[in-house]
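User: I've been going back and forth on whether these two constructs are worth ordering. Before I decide, could you fold them both?

Assistant: Sure. I'll take them in the order you sent them. The first construct and its structure tokens:
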Amino acid sequence: QVQLVESGGGLVQAGDSLRLSCAASGRTISLYVMGWFRQEPGKERDFVAAIRWSGSPYLADSAKGRFTISRDNAKSTVFLQMNSLRPEDTAVYYCAAKFELRGDPHINNYDYWGQGTQVTVSS
């Protein structure tokens, strides 16, 4: 079992930055793909970013050039640095984990999820 706890969300203005953190406990995350998804009310949960144990990153088109994902395996923590935030980035952001063998990091077949952290970007 892996427990995930997100932090770092908040209310910011368009153009501002936020850094989300995801702290994992229960097992080392070294062999897990770690992902970030986001969800607006009444909509599906969408892929934002993911990172393999090796450090290889994956970003949604909407995140490229603005967001950066990183991980510290020794501290079992994953980060999502979000710059140049836009009102359309407003959502609940979820951290997720799955074994590397579960395949494409973009696919929402993650095994473990955090409780989510709200990000609100005002115009």
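The second construct, handled the same way:
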Amino acid sequence: QVQLVESGGGLVQAGGSLRLSCAASGRSFSTYAGAWFRQAPGEEREFVASISWNGGRTYYADSVKGRFTISRENAKNTMYLQMDSLKPEDTAVYYCAADSFRGVQASDYAYWGQGTQVTVSS
């Protein structure tokens, strides 16, 4: 069992940066793959980035490639999403997720945080 709590969201101007954190509790987190998803109002939850259990492999949605960086520190049971060059279309609630399989579908992940709001103004 893994519990996840996101933090770091907020309001930022276009072109700015934010770093989201996902704090995990439970001894299994270091063995799980992790991911970030986002959901804008009226939209389905969409994949943003994923990372393997040891951080050795990462994968990004085309819409964020080159602007966002996913990372993790297993010693701190924490996963991060560094977001640079933010655009208004990045506005959404951002969720972290974890499970044994590193997929790109929301259904691939059993464990979810409550979400943190990111708003990018133009």
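Notes on the second construct follow. The chain has a mean pLDDT of 96. The two ends are 40 Å apart (CA to CA).
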